[in-house]
Prior knowledge:
The chain is α+β, with helices and mostly antiparallel strands. Helices cover 12% and strands 30% of the residues.
Amino acid sequence: MDDKIKKTDQEWQKQLSPEQFQVARKAGTERAFTGKYWNTKDKGVYACVCCGQPLFSSDTKFDSGTGWPSFYQPLEEGAVATETDNSYGMVRTEARCAKCDAHLGHVFEDGPDPTGLRFCMNSASLDLKPTEKK
Ligand SMILES: [Zn+2]
């Protein structure tokens, strides 16, 4: 299976804001409580800002108190890829978009039921597609 989206930095830069590029393509982290979605309670699906792949449902978003949008599970198994990140002298689990490798944030094991996981994401890597109101 290799239907991944691959683009050069230049191509991504054209498509993304400087902050989105820094976070999603360069594994940056936005400052807590500054992102667009840390306190958002709107219903919808959070998609990858780079490729539009649906990543998280607002139904699994919870208030973690961290200042970053936090979810206890991805929308679908396989939508979010995880790998060990040893940067900054810490061992953490990095979360990436499975389709385009965008850096999303990190996964911690102190989340709520039912998964016990906390997907600590950057708003800059996400694009909320609101549920249409009827
Ligand atoms: Zn993506």
